[in-house]
Amino acid sequence: MDERILIDKIANKDEKAFQTFVEMHHHLVLNICNNILNNYDDSMDVSQEVFIQFYESIESFRGDSKITTWLYRISVNKSLNYLRSKKKNRLFSSLDVLFNDDSKKNDPEDTALKPGEDLERNENKKALYFALNKLPEKQRIAITLNNFEDLSYKEISEVMEISVSEVGVLINRGKKKLQKLILDYYKKN
């Protein structure tokens, strides 16, 4: 079904169209929330709130951007509001992506950790969590959307409602700060 037709049906409170839309986009929304909240149960709750807000405010969708961009924006905002209300500090969930080589997943011999690798991997994760939690909020969001959600700078600019050049600045500064914070972590430990 054409996305515009689906959105029009949802705007007319067609529950079947809304169910279809949720089924199409639930994984996307859940993934965004989980990358920010780092808790699957909380992410499930927040993702439901995202779709409730979407349903209640569909009339305000002007169609200037893709519907997924609007969902990203709602998901990020709902997740950040949840974090603020619960005063949680952890932001990312699937940091294994940074430490695992996906090309080797099919070879069982390569998936077995060699002695000391597990300790090193855990220490690297601690360093990364430490550094990520120290980044300013906008830098964390930009880096999350770029590195974990594979969004382009243009898409991130739409989600965060900032210019493309500002996205580039946030990501570059964030990466430099991450490197420094990770080095500081290892110097202290």
Q: Can you tell me about this structure?
A:
There is one protein chain. The protein has helices at residues 3-11, 15-37, 40-57, 67-86, 96-99, 108-111, 117-134, 137-147, 153-160, 164-188. It is an all-alpha fold. Helix 1 crosses helix 2 (15-37), helix 3 (40-57) packs across helix 4 (67-86) and helix 4 (67-86) crosses helix 9 (153-160). The radius of gyration is 19 Å and the shape is elongated. The protein starts with a helix and ends with a helix.
Helix and strand topology:
Blueprint lengths: L2 H9 L3 H23 L2 H18 L9 H20 L9 H4 L8 H4 L5 H18 L2 H11 L5 H8 L3 H25 L1
Helix pairs in contact: 1-2, 2-3, 2-4, 3-4, 4-9, 7-10, 8-10, 9-10
Key descriptive features of the protein:
189 residues, mainly alpha, Rna Polymerase Sigma Factor, Chain: A, Arc Repressor Mutant, subunit A, 10 helices, elongated
Poorly predicted ranges: 87-109
Helical fraction: over 70%
Please tally the helical runs, counting DSSP H or I stretches of 4 or more residues: 10
- What's the domain count? 2
CATH architecture of the largest domain: Orthogonal Bundle
Q: CA-to-CA gap between the ends?
A: 55 Å
Can you identify the CATH superfamily of the largest domain?
Winged helix-like DNA-binding domain superfamily/Winged helix DNA-binding domain
The coarse silhouette is elongated
